[in-house]
Amino acid sequence: MKTLVICSGGLDSVTLAHKVAAERTLTRLVSFDYGQRHKKELDSARACAARFGVPHDIIDISAVGRLLSGSALTSGEPVPEGHYAEDTMRVTVVPNRNAIMLAIAFGIAAAEQAEAVAAAVHGGDHFIYPDCRPDFIEAFEAMQRHALEGLATIALYTPFVRLSKADIVREGARLGVPFAETWSCYQGGERHCGRCGTCVERREAFHLAGVEDPTPYEDPHFWIEACREHQAGQPA
């Protein structure tokens, strides 16, 4: 099945690209510049496309991103530190981001006669991002069937939607993903900060998966206390 992958350059989407390349026909990677402070992730997406020798498009929607204000990813507001599941991480939500990106990707897929669009949304995001939940995925795919009726039939492939980040790490290890060549940190510095929600989630996922984490972090131990505090705050 000819499949286009939305690839940010993060661990999840790069693992998805490897999965599609192994199990389907990977036609191209599509990435988005929406004015994110961690634009460095796009270098990892570019490297992933080069590994597979497929076209890679970085679509500039930064003008739209500037209007999606209020997120720490697109404004000057500090990125919160701590566990990803904490309520403080809501400040990293970019309104309607996945819906916007998916709509564009489906248009590209229809134009090039691809059969599926793959996105790496996953279960670990459910509490924070409404456009990463199974209900959204099902509704979006239904909407696209109507939008492209008579023009194209394109499936939305989201194999990670009910998986944890640790599950994705295990799958990436099975597929031989070069994890060191993926980028997660929302700070976008020279190295992963080790303190933002995505860094904590990334480090915890490798630990839970029993897979060695090759990522250099500015603070490689912060995740332990962040996870401890998160667990302490959960209902008994």
TrEMBL record:
Cofactors required: Zn(2+)
Catalytic function, reaction form: 7-carboxy-7-carbaguanine + NH4(+) + 2 ATP = 7-cyano-7-carbaguanine + 2 AMP + 2 diphosphate + 2 H(+)
Residues that coordinate or bind Zn(2+): C185, C193, C196, C199
GO function terms (MF aspect): ATP binding; ligase activity, forming carbon-nitrogen bonds; zinc ion binding
Entry's Gene Ontology BP terms: tRNA queuosine(34) biosynthetic process
EC number: 6.3.4.20
EC top class, as a word: ligase
InterPro entries (alphabetical): QueC (IPR018317), Rossmann-like_a/b/a_fold (IPR014729)
Keywords tagged on the record: ATP-binding, Ligase, Metal-binding, Nucleotide-binding, Queuosine biosynthesis, Zinc
Cofactor note: Binds 1 zinc ion per subunit.
Pathway where this protein functions: Purine metabolism; 7-cyano-7-deazaguanine biosynthesis
Binding site for ATP: C7, S8, G9, G10, L11, D12, S13, V14, T15, L16, A17
Family: Belongs to the QueC family.
Function summary: Catalyzes the ATP-dependent conversion of 7-carboxy-7-deazaguanine (CDG) to 7-cyano-7-deazaguanine (preQ(0)).
HAMAP family per record: QueC (MF_01633)
Protein name: 7-cyano-7-deazaguanine synthase
Organism lineage: Bacteria, Pseudomonadati, Pseudomonadota, Alphaproteobacteria, Hyphomicrobiales
